[in-house]
Fold this sequence. Notes:
CATH architecture: Up-down Bundle
Distance between the termini: 27 Å
Number of strands: 0
CATH class: Mainly Alpha
Number of domains: 1
Structural class: mainly alpha
Order of helices and strands: HHHHH
Largest sheet: none
Mean pLDDT: 84
Amino acid sequence: MLAAPFLTLPSKRKLPQYYQRVSDPIDLCTLEQNIVTGFYRTVESFDRDMSRLFNNNVRFFGRTSELGIAATRLRKAYNMAKTDFLAQIEDILGESPPASFIPEHDPGLCSLHDSCSFSVVHYHAFCSCSV
């Protein structure tokens, strides 16, 4: 499961440097709890926390690491879901989300490749997606 590594934060005992480098950690369980408790008053605040989750993990683990690539792929899936379910999101909100909610371009992928695993690390010359 792509999201599994992000369900909970790393152990403070096993990975204390995570908390030294990531000033505002968040995980998917915290996001879920915030939804259940009504913490999020706007779609933008939820979206900011999702972005924070992706950014924290790419920043700490590195974009070419297994977890960095997983965070980038999960960001892509999240952004695609926002687009795919826009009508349902509008029904829930009772209005259109702000324009910034739907990205014009997914920053996790280059403009040359739609599904290239190497594009997340910007190795276009060595791309294996046959483009």
